[in-house]
Amino acid sequence: MSHPCLSCGACCASFRVDCSVHESDEHGGRVPAGLLEEVNAHVCRMRGTDWARPRCAALVGEVGKQARCGIYEWRPSPCREFEAASDACNRVRQRHGLAPLDGLIF
Ligand code: SF4
Ligand code: SF4
Fold first, then answer.
1. Cβ atoms of residues 44 and 22 within 8 Å
2. pTM for the whole thing?
3. Which of 20, 28, 37, 54 is the most exposed place for a label (fewest CB within 10 A)?
């Protein structure tokens, strides 16, 4: 069975994703700077995540069908910390018309 995130992507099309400027590859981090916009001297934001209908610029594919992070190895810390099958995960899945995940499947 493939990982449920690969047919989801709901979190990448729901939240504003902010991180430290130090996560940008322009400042010694790993997140491609071209996918970030500067919020202030300390904070960067993944492009597209503050739209009225958010969609991270790094998201590839169609939410709820086939979706993946195009910079998975270099994604910022909020994305690394977000847990599949958590309450927040299941809330945004439902918002995108997807069934909640049972944590026991992992
Ligand atoms: S909302 Fe949950 S299941 Fe969907 S991609 Fe994000 S972590 Fe994975
Ligand atoms: S960087 Fe990747 S994991 Fe993070 S919101 Fe964007 S597409 Fe999703």
1. no
2. 0.94
3. 28
